[in-house]
Amino acid sequence: MSLRKASESVVLDCMGVKEGESVLIIVDAGSRRIGESLYGVSRDAGAEAMLLEILERKLHGEEPPGPVAAAMKSACVVIAPTTKSLSHTDARREASKAGARIASMPGITEEMMERTMSGDYSKIAELSQRVAQALSGGKTARVVSPAGTDITMSIDGRDGHADTGMLREPGAFGNLPAGEAFVSPVEGFADGRIVIDGAMAGVKVLDEPITVTVEKGEVKDIQGGEAARQLSRMIEEARDRNARNLAELGIGTNERAGLSGSLLEVEKVLGTVHLAFGDNKSLGGDVKAPIHVDGVVLSPTLMIDGKAVIRDGKILL
Predict the structure, then answer these.
(1) Which residue segment(s) compose the domain that 202 sits in?
(2) How far is CA 193 from the centre of its chain?
(3) Of 66, 84, 116, which closes a domain?
(4) What distance in Å separates the CA atoms of residue 31 and residue 194, rounded to the nearest whole number?
(5) In this structure, are residues 38 and 108 in contact, taking their beta carbons and an 8 Å threshold?
(6) What DSSP character marks residue 136?
(7) Whether residue 196 sits in one domain with residue 233
């Protein structure tokens, strides 16, 4: 699939852009070519297309400039292939409330976009919805892995959500490439150890696994090499205790996603689990933080109320 074809999949198939709609594409210097391709497809579809380049944010979840937030709120469609994620920002949440259809594509590359946007999104959507349903019906989740992860958390009363890639309704929001189901654990009710060995948001090279100790729903200790030190700095630089909150339990459902090293793709790899720290307001939780960063666990076993949903990286539903 060429970049043009991948852009058509995003704009026409996933977003359902129609003639006359306003489409805002937000990029930074690293994603300019992708933005230009998305802009071209939107323009050719008869949309009122706009391409806006911002300075790269320092952290995932950092707010965009005020004028950009205002533009997001007034657009019919927002597509954001930015280096740092705008997903967990007030700007994105307010734009969603205003009815904008939004696709966040943080850290995407041309090669990744060409490969992952060629997946069978009807199949991805069906599996994502089944996993989300299993999460919605659970009270307690436990994740273990060969690398040493062993963490238990409450998900009682929290709804599971499916990231299907079909963002055609007013207010719809998700990642592209899509392919995950996720839930926000109950604040204060998670204990154990997470060993991140797949990828870590904001970390280009995972030189060795990152071991995160969680007590009562908060990060208490981070151990490992340079990647672990980078995660520690990200949390410290947020200057907010809420950055330590265990914010998300997610499951990858996209069979076309691979271990590229990019969090956006690796967290979608079929049968992986990702766990995030920081903001969970966008996921149905109660914690607002200036950061949201995910780490991926490979070959996990996930048990919901003692029943295996994933065993050694294979989804059993």
Answers:
(1) 121-315
(2) 21
(3) 116
(4) 32
(5) no
(6) H
(7) yes
Give Cβ neighbours of residue 163 (< 8 Å, ≥ 6 apart): 128, 174, 175, 178, 179, 180, 181, 182
Nearest to 292 by CA among 231, 207, 251, 229: 231
**Cβ atoms of 243 and 232 closer than 8 Å:** no
Q: Which CATH number is 87's domain given?
A: 3.40.640.10
Q: What is the residue-wise DSSP string for 165-192?
A: S---STT-EEESS--EEEEPPPTT-EEE
45, 27, 43: which is closest to 35 by C-alpha? 27
What tens-digit pLDDT sequence spans the chain (317 residues)? 799 999 999 999 999 999 999 999 999 999 999 999 999 999 999 999 999 999 999 988 999 999 999 999 999 999 999 999 999 999 999 999 999 999 999 999 999 999 888 878 889 999 999 999 999 989 999 999 999 999 999 999 999 999 999 999 999 999 999 999 999 999 999 999 999 999 999 898 999 999 999 999 999 999 999 999 999 999 999 999 999 999 999 999 999 899 987 888 999 999 999 999 999 998 999 999 999 999 999 999 999 999 999 999 999 98
The token duo for 79 is 């597509």
